[in-house]
Amino acid sequence: MNAYERHQRYIRDYVLYYGRGKLPAVPQKPTKSDDDILKQQYRFIRTEEDDRADDSREAWEKRLARRYYERLYREYCIADLTRYREGQVGMRWRVEKEVIIGKGQFICGNKHCEAKEDLKSYEVNFQYAEAGETKNALVKLRLCPPCAYKLNYKKEQQKKKEEKKRKRKVDKEERKLRKKMKKEGREDELDELERKKAREAEELAEQERIEREEKEKAEREAEKAKNVWKKDAQVEQTKNRSEEFEDYFRGLFP
Question: How far out from the chain centre does Cα 241 lie?
């Protein structure tokens, strides 16, 4: 089974074992807006002590489905990128329906996008309210390339603005230097300055090419490692329950 098929299996198992009336963190009334969603009192961080009493009476498959379902609520968020040009990105936790269908995990995490291909994870700092307290958590936001562009739009625009400002300053200084050298009859030095500038441009282009190739290679290796999901039968060391769960969940939380 691929990752999405395994996701569907765990969700089906959870509903089978617990029933819809026992799903955790489900709103008791229809959600009408993102603001309503943000006000829901979710509990995302659970401990072994929270589940110990129940776990002692549950079969392995039941515990596995339960742990997977509960982890889904604290792993990913949904973003509203409507005002990305202003640098304003709204974020919220996923609701039950989104968790079940894989929205924000196997489907782009932009509220208004349904893309399923070429998704990448971005770790974002999410501020939210829980039990009357303001909290911060690093969560994953899964986006397709066009939506990732929107997420980073403001930052990239700022970088371009700073680069243009730096280039204008350098060009101004070069013009002043050229004018001075020409006035002093230092044409040979001026020619050497031109050659030096051309060499620096070539070196910069080569450096950018190498960095781009290294980044692409790292991304390919990360994707390859992420898609590997197999259990090593030769491992002899004893694993605790959390480690066993992680083995089964490998590849499901990209």
Answer: 27
> Which of 17, 38, 71 lies at the terminal end of a domain, its last residue?
71
Q: Does residue 76 sit in the same domain as residue 127?
A: yes
Q: What is the pLDDT of residues 99-135, one digit of tens each?
A: 888 899 899 999 999 999 999 999 998 888 777 888 8
Angstrom distance (rounded) from CA 105 to CA 11: 13
CA 253 – CA 123 distance, rounded (Å): 12
Task: Tally the domains of the chain.
Answer: 2
- pLDDT tens string 125-157: 888 877 788 888 888 999 999 999 999 999 999
Q: Which residues contact 146 (CB under 8 A, 6 or more apart)?
A: 113, 115
Q: Per the domain annotation, does 184 fall within a domain?
A: no
Domain around 124: 72-152
pLDDT for the residue 67: 74
